[in-house]
């Protein structure tokens, strides 16, 4: 219960800090202030967020969500029922339901039988659902570690020492023609994927790519375009105002990440992805009349990333992604496991991973985003445990608090439950506000 209370209070404080930063931004609204606010908005925080299909929950994950939430809810109520049965209490009725699109479960225990028990026995029954969700969370975590490190490796898959394996890519993704299922991605820009999917998520889960420490030698006289419209950036022109999609804006590496753009248009592939490209820090590192340049990407929707990969024939592929970084997380699914044999389904370990380990998200109930890399089943089990432990509304936490106060401190019980109910409501409304800001 204390953990649930701390999470709600901390989330309330973080929502207030984001709202304060937003009110300050409205007054100034400078470019750097706006960029700093976006970095704050998308940074790791413990805000409790409502999960809405198509907005915070990928549509392609809906079936994982329904199964996980239903399993968590059924086991939660089963815990209450089993504990009630151990104390020889009568169960009036039980079942499961769908509220709009959200699955749930319920169980009803005879009040007359419950009133005959002592305080400790009542607390056991009330806390049984929370306990079963915590146990399920631990089982899923253990199962996933065993599956990834032992089971799949004995069924024909291998754990990659570095890089990630593409298991699925959305047909609408600009990377679809270049990255096929089974392709092994080994590096993003100058960042090798030494820790597999952890490095993959860390790289794409941000707004702006890191400014490269080494530039690219480009022969300005042979490749420069006289038209510099590709450097005419605006809020609705993340790639500049040029109609030629093969060119990008570059500026001298010595200028660094400056607000004033002094760029020129160069061929994107020839500059960034050619096999003969020489990396540099200064113009002196380049041969002849070449200049050391870096790409200019001031818009979060116009980032450029070099993707180094190997196809199943061990051929090295270099691709350039252009767009918002976070979009790749939704459109490209990767895994640390790679099939040893072509006949094995590439998606199977990843689908198991999604169901038992991958993402901590909960739909219109609340979730703690610090645990973002856990499973749907494990996530919803832990979420139900944390949420139900809060002394608010008609949650288990309110019943626990009432029994701990021995039904004597009614005023204190009313004050605590009203405060916590108000905080939970504030977090729900505030988190919706944050979601709207994130999608501006």
Automatic annotation (TrEMBL):
Entry GO terms, CC: cytoplasm; endomembrane system; membrane
Return the Pfam families for the record: Peptidase_M50 (PF02163)
Extract the InterPro entries matched here. Answer: MBTPS2, Peptidase_M50
- Limits of the Peptidase M50 domain: 65-421
Kindly state which keywords UniProt assigns to this record, in alphabetical order. Hydrolase, Membrane, Protease, Transmembrane, Transmembrane helix
Q: Does the keyword Signal apply?
A: no
Kindly give the membrane topology term recorded for this protein: Multi-pass membrane protein
Question: Which molecular function term from Gene Ontology is one that the record holds?
Answer: metalloendopeptidase activity
Instruction: Report the locations given in the UniProt record.
Output: Endomembrane system
Looking at the UniProt entry, the stretches that span the membrane are 412-437
Transmembrane helix recorded as keyword = yes
Query: A GO BP term, please?
Result: regulation of response to endoplasmic reticulum stress
Protein name as it appears in the record:
Endopeptidase S2P
Organism lineage: Eukaryota, Fungi, Fungi incertae sedis, Mucoromycota, Mucoromycotina
